[in-house]
Amino acid sequence: MRVNPMWTLNTMVAVLLQGAAMADADTSERSLGGGQVRNNCNCGRINKSGGRIVGGSNTLVNEYPLIAGIVNRGMPDFIFCGGTIITERHVLTAAHCKPERSSQLLSVVLAEHKVSSKTESKTTIIDVTQFIIHEVYNKTGNSENDIALLVLASQIPLGKNIGPACFPKANLNIVGQKVRVIGWGALHTNGPQPDVLQKVDLDVQPTSACSKVYKGITEGQLCTYTLRKDSCQGDSGGPVIWRDPGTNRYTVVGIVSYGYGCAEPGAPGVNTKVSAYRDWILQKIQQTVPGAAICPTNAIPTEEWKFPPDPIAYYYLHCVLYGGIC
Ligand code: 4AZ
């Protein structure tokens, strides 16, 4: 078989570049692993080079581009609930975050970090036009179906510091794994809210661990429990994210819902399990902004696969292999 020299070169460059990417791949949260799907989604990214929850720690500035803060319109400094960006026009949150007064106007704050400071991060505030709560949200009973979708008045300016979470596959089972909760919620039961966005890693427990403590727990809920660590008042509606080891990207697996106090011994946290509401979410997106789309959990943006990514490296290799001034 005759081998096209250019094809050989392309293959060699590809192999070399892939090798470089793989060398970086082991534990790095920036890199790519197996099982990727190429498309235009750039979901679940974190920014590591930039910059209570109970028992957590400060995030870096703009570490989690997927976080949204929900505020009363005109009051951007009081984030009363969290949310997760899932499309360029939708934020996922909890049904119980909907204010009692239906006339209450809301906005979301994006790229927020330190609430009291205006200088460390350039935030974006967008008005909420619809607060769609689940039709069978059980407000007075066991808080079943504590899920809501916010529709925004304008496009989210997606970029380095603002971007969607990856969306989970149906029936994703992560019992026994770690998840991360992000929020400006209270630092302990009835405690103050922090100024800086917090993060904490929690263990996903079998649903039975929550059923032992709370009435009416269903498979639509995700139970978390880790000694001295928890979400708390104000974290509600916010992201429970899981690092997909196949892509090293973050997928929104839960919505903070409720619990008995915060980090109380023997009292797990209850979260709405996003994978159980895939169809509901997709239907509401379709009904409100038909062109909007979620990013599947195994999505890797096309830009990361551009070939050749570096014209200088390409030229140099060609030069070494076929001659020239190098
Ligand atoms: C709340 O009140 C709340 N520890 C949220 C989560 C938890 C407790 C309370 C879970 O918003």
TrEMBL record:
One of its GO terms (biological process) is proteolysis. InterPro entries: Peptidase_S1_PA (IPR009003), Peptidase_S1_PA_chymotrypsin (IPR043504), Peptidase_S1A (IPR001314), Ser/Thr_Proteases_Immune/Dev (IPR051487), Trypsin_dom (IPR001254), TRYPSIN_HIS (IPR018114), TRYPSIN_SER (IPR033116). Residues 53-286 form the Peptidase S1 domain. Keywords: Disulfide bond, Hemolymph clotting, Hydrolase, Protease, Serine protease, Signal, Sushi. Its EC number is 3.4.21.84. It comes from the Eukaryota. It comes from Apolygus lucorum. Belongs to the peptidase S1 family. CLIP subfamily. It catalyses: Selective cleavage of 103-Arg-|-Ser-104 and 124-Ile-|-Ile-125 bonds in Limulus clotting factor B to form activated factor B. Cleavage of -Pro-Arg-|-Xaa- bonds in synthetic substrates. It holds the Pfam family Trypsin. This is limulus clotting factor C. GO terms for molecular function: serine-type endopeptidase activity. It is an enzyme of class 3 (hydrolase). Signal peptide: none annotated.
